[in-house]
């Protein structure tokens, strides 16, 4: 901690991070031990966070992330989209295919940013807001591969005709970005994906990952 930072705010944010990392919630005692502060401090932190609906406590007294976090989360997609657009534009122009950034939304893959090439005679129409199961399409499959903790090359996913007849896709997962699961990819009207597309998609995913860190 430095003179310019708030110890109370720092502790409150640490509480939220600890709760976000567990599916079962944490008790006051568990939070006290993890934070290294007494139970009275934890009670005060939880009471303040509850007032803002950022934390809730169940019947058993375990604290969990509250629904107020969703209101804050709605502002995340525009920020992520803005950070990713330069890499997506470059990818779309280089490959001559529609580039997209896809994030996990529950059990689905959600396209949050799409860039179409400017010089091609035709390309796949792919819209932001498009959803599909994680186990279908290159974007979702890349995310699932990224969960396996392998290197970026192993995370590359190639598909054909899974989401749209006649269209092929290539995508690579975002890696090393805390709190965000996603992938960067391209979709094109082709029977196969050329060899140069995979490495270029991996590079673009790495660029976006670095921009989000």
From TrEMBL:
Residues 6-67 form the HTH iclR-type domain. It comes from the Bacteria. Residues 68-213 form the IclR-ED domain. One of its GO terms (biological process) is negative regulation of DNA-templated transcription. Keywords: DNA-binding, Transcription, Transcription regulation. Pfam families: HTH_IclR, IclR_C. InterPro entries: ArsR-like_HTH, GAF-like_dom_sf, HTH_MetabolicPath_Reg, Tscrpt_reg_IclR_C, Tscrpt_reg_IclR_N, WH-like_DNA-bd_sf, WH_DNA-bd_sf. This is HTH domain-containing protein.
């Amino acid at each position: 901690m430095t003179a310019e930072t708030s110890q109370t705010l720092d502790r409150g944010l640490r509480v939220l991070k600890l709760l976000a990392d567990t599916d079962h919630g944490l008790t006051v005692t568990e939070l006290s031990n993890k934070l290294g502060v007494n139970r009275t401090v934890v009670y005060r932190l939880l009471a303040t966070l509850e007032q803002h609906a950022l934390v809730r406590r169940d019947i058993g007294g375990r604290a969990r992330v509250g629904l107020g976090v969703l209101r804050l989360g709605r502002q995340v997609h525009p920020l992520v989209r803005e950070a990713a657009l330069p890499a997506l534009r470059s990818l779309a122009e280089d490959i001559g295919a529609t580039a997209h950034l896809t994030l996990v939304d529950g059990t689905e893959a959600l396209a949050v940013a799409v860039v179409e090439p400017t010089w091609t005679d035709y390309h796949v129409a792919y819209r932001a807001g498009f959803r599909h199961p994680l186990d279908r399409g290159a974007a979702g499959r890349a995310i699932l591969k990224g969960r396996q903790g392998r290197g970026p090359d192993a995370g590359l996913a190639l598909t054909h005709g899974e989401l749209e007849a006649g269209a092929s896709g290539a995508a690579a997962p975002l890696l090393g970005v805390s709190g965000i699961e996603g992938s960067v990819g391209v979709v094109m009207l082709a029977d196969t994906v050329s060899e140069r597309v995979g490495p270029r998609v991996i590079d673009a995913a790495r660029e976006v990952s670095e921009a989000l860190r």
